[in-house]
Amino acid sequence: MADAYNKTELAILNAAEEIFLKKGYDGAKTTEIAQTAGVTHALLHYYFRTKENLFNKVYEKKVDLISHSLFSCFFDFSLPLHERLKKAIESHFDFLYDNPGLPRFVINEIIPDGNRMEKFKNTVGTVPEVLLDTLQKELDSAASAGEICRIKAADLMLDIVSLNVFLFLMYPVIKELSGRIYGSEKAMLEARKAENVKVIIARLKNTDSK
User: Are residues 95 and 187 in the same domain?
Assistant: First the structure.
């Protein structure tokens, strides 16, 4: 998708993404976006016409990323379930690290707006349903073999998303504490990612097999 834009358009889109994620639609100003991109306001208007058009471009990009950040790893059937699960948790965590303002963006800009929510559902499409159905069959098979406990695929996905997203919703606060508790921000993030993997894997453990 990036290949469809020239250098100037990409600079404007990157600046818009930064400011929309930080300030939301209402708080963002096209003059600030233009200044951040290093272009004139007239040039921004030439390429994208309105703030709404620019916002929609950023919104579409982020929704597409959301829909693939967690789902794609689960379709890599070359890996065993536990390895795929670990990879999915870590991939989703890393995605949120690269887009720390995204959870608040979803809560503030997508969920309250009916049209944006409808676009979100249309973009994601039937991928979640297909994934949950496929994953449920795999979980049921593993549970029947005594490898894991029985669990609904929807609960498993919600557990993963909840654990990862909470950290980044609270990131502005937690980031300030990371140095004192973990020694550095990087150490804190790596520790939390590893802990989330452990929590989910432990959740699947079949206690009846002992």
Answer: yes
Contact 74, 88 (CB under 8 A): yes
Tokens of 42: 């007239």
CA–CA dist 129, 110 (Å, integer)? 21
Q: Interior CA angle at 111 toward 154 and 3, to 5°?
A: 90
21 Cβ neighbours under 8 A, 6+ residues apart: 99, 101, 102, 104, 105
CB 178 within 8 A of CB 185: yes
Domain end marker among 23, 41, 60: 60
Residues 6 or more apart whose CB falls under 8 angstroms from that of 190 comprise: none
In a domain, 65, yes or no: no
For residue 209, what is the DSSP state?
Answer: G
* Count of other CB atoms within 10 angstroms of residue 68: 14
41 and 104 share a domain?
Answer: no
Q: Are residues 157 and 99 in the same domain?
A: yes
For the full predicted model, state whether its pTM sits above 0.85.
no
Cα separation, 110 vs 187, whole angstroms: 32
- Which two tokens mark 151? 């669990």
Which pLDDT tens digit goes with each residue over 122-167? Answer: 766 666 788 889 889 999 999 999 999 999 999 999 999 899 999 9
* Domain ranges, residue 30: 1-60
